[in-house]
Write a structure and sequence with these properties.
- Residues 1-76 and 100-128 have low confidence and may be disordered.
- The protein has 17 helices and 13 strands.
- It has two domains: 57-97 and 128-272 and 461-535, Alpha/Beta hydrolase fold, catalytic domain (Rossmann fold, 3-Layer(aba) Sandwich); 274-446, no CATH class.
- It starts with 5 loop residues before the first strand and ends with a helix.
- By secondary structure, the chain is α/β, with parallel strands linked by helices.
- The protein has helices at 48-54, 62-67, 115-120, 170-178, 209-228, 245-256, 279-288, 290-308, 311-321, 330-346, 350-359, 365-377, 389-393, 401-413, 435-446, 456-460, 516-535, and strands at 6-7, 70-72, 78-80, 86-93, 134-142, 153-157, 181-185, 238-243, 263-267, 274-276, 414-416, 469-474, 492-496.
């Protein structure tokens, strides 16, 4: 049930944030899609520095200051006065699909719900009853520009990381244009949205994309009834919003529950599941050009030499440069290197990456690259559990966001950014980062037989709500290649061909330096949202 409201800390308070947070990015699970809509992911707590610098001259849209009072910002620009968000919790069932087959004295889930433990070949202990258990899903609501009580609701879908409730970027500008409330909801099994009574030995069989999409529909109904109806409005128009994986959930929520959501705005959603995704590497090579690709291969070769031919001394020196723990497997070290490269390309830093590698002498290229990685993504980047196969496999350490996210990747979504199989398709990723490498990580973490189902989303999320879908991508975003699915027919796919526009660029704060194509794309987004809200649910 709804537990009431409270206050959250000011944006920028805690975890090293600043008052002007770039809260649309950043999270790349090992070889996977970056998917964030709001908040600051645990893995990039310092990584926002580079993004904040890149968008330091952001200004609110005209509608934002037209809709409410503004105040002079730190750079002298007028910024909208946004009150702190209010937070609450909505109670969800742990399992939306299993029928009641339990009795009060039963303490274990049904056998067919214990897929993870079945793969491991051991009896589960201490399981929560799947039907009787509940989880309290955390949310925040931003009402500063809302036309109370009739204005629409933009439901910002949380992705694969804990949320802190802060929202920045164009979502807030769009809300101001529509006089909408922004509601941010956390994904199950992340942050505090954990099933009651759950512990690390319970397994993750209830962490699925199907359950997450069902959460959104149930959340919408309960929030409408418990929060909005008492304010005098029985039905508001709801639109789902998300970036990356969260954008895929937003899309599937619309297709599966068209009577709940009037439309979906999805930025760079990976809709076409597959075990491996070599197109990611091929796209990166084409994006940076042959000269930069050659320098990336030189970096890879030198890293490989340090790991394999320089003995323990070279291995220790390399891991120290990358801030990686000494016990991390050497193959995981190569993943640290190439995910940093992929992040730079898809988030608009390819020029900085290529200039750094191009200017470095071969004997300094690893150190210069390590410094760039620390500058862009934070010095704790290499220490993340995402890059440590042993950490992902550890049940004793409890449920980390990395382990929860990899469960989704390994059992459902896949799309591991693998190196191309053909020798003729020369990519920039190390040849060791192939499908077997990622499959071994999945099996080590979750047991024998763990494998993503590439047909799952197509079978599960086909529905009648295939219209009123808006998908936004950009030239430098590799995940646009996974954004097409035969059962998804969006009203429009906006692909912007602009300089260093990458993953989820449309959700970044508008900036004075934005190209005309970017401004036109955002105007199109607002027109679609307005058309959906005007025509109703």
């Amino acid at each position: 049930m709804w537990m009431g409201r409270g206050r959250v800390s000011k944006p920028g308070a805690g975890r090293g944030g600043s008052g002007r947070r770039t809260a649309v990015l950043l999270m790349l699970a090992a070889g996977q899609a970056v998917v964030v809509g709001v908040g600051l992911p645990e893995r990039a707590s310092n990584g926002q520095v580079g993004l904040a610098q890149k968008h330091a001259h952001s200004t609110p849209g005209r509608g934002a200051c037209a809709a409410r009072r503004c105040f002079p910002g730190a750079d002298g620009e007028m910024e909208p006065l946004r009150p702190e968000p209010e937070w609450g919790e909505i109670e969800q069932q742990c399992d939306h699909f299993t029928r009641a087959t339990w009795t009060p004295e039963k303490k274990h889930m049904r056998h067919d719900m214990m897929r993870e433990e079945g793969r491991r070949g051991r009896k589960a202990e201490g399981h929560v009853n799947a039907y009787s258990c509940r989880l309290k899903q955390r949310y925040w609501m931003h009402t500063g520009v809302w036309n109370r009580p009739v204005g629409p609701i933009l439901l910002v879908v949380g992705g694969e990381h804990p949320l802190d409730g802060s929202v920045a970027g164009f979502v807030m500008d769009a809300a101001a244009e529509l006089s909408a409330m922004v509601v941010v909801v956390e994904h199950r099994f992340f942050g505090t949205s954990i099933p009651e009574g759950w512990n690390a030995t319970n397994g993750l069989s209830l962490l699925t994309m199907e359950q997450a999409v069902a959460d959104l529909a149930v959340f919408r109904d309960k929030f409408q009834r418990m929060v909005l109806a008492p304010q005098g409005q029985s039905e508001n128009v709801w639109i789902t919003v998300g970036c990356g994986y969260a954008g895929a959930l937003a899309t599937w929520a619309r297709t599966k529950h068209p009577h709940h959501f009037a439309g979906a705005w999805a930025s760079s959603p990976p809709l076409a599941a597959a075990v491996e995704f070599p197109s990611h590497d091929m796209h990166d090579r084409q994006t940076v050009g042959e000269h930069c690709a050659a320098r990336i291969r030189t970096l890879t070769d030198i890293v490989q030499i340090e790991l394999n031919n320089m003995g323990a001394e070279g291995e220790v020196r390399l891991k120290a440069l990358l801030q990686a723990p000494e016990e991390v497997d050497n193959r995981d070290v190569m993943l640290i290197v190439h995910d940093s490269i992929s992040l730079a390309i898809q988030y608009g830093f390819k020029s900085r990456l290529c200039s750094t590698l191009g200017a470095a002498h071969d004997d300094e290229i690893v150190a210069d690259f390590a410094n760039l990685t620390a500058t862009l993504w934070g010095r704790s980047y290499g220490k993340s559990c995402h890059f440590d196969s042993a950490c992902l496999s550890s049940v004793q350490k409890g449920l980390s966001s990395a382990r929860a996210w990899h469960w989704i990747l390994c059992t459902q979504l896949g799309l591991f950014a693998t190196t191309p199989r053909s020798e003729e398709d020369l990519g920039i990723r190390h040849k060791g980062l192939d499908a077997p490498f990622f499959m071994r990580r999945c099996v080590a973490a979750f047991g024998k037989g763990t494998r993503a189902d590439p047909h799952g989303p197509r079978k599960t999320f086909k529905g009648s709500g295939s219209k009123r879908l808006l998908i936004v991508t950009a030239r430098d975003d590799p995940w646009k290649l996974a954004g097409h699915a035969p059962h998804i027919l969006p009203d429009e796919i906006i692909e912007v061909d602009c300089h260093e526009c990458g993953h989820c660029f449309d959700m970044l704060p508008p900036a004075a330096a934005d190209e005309e194509q970017v401004r036109e794309a955002r105007a199109k987004i607002v027109r679609h949202l307005r058309a959906w809200t005007d025509s109703g649910q």
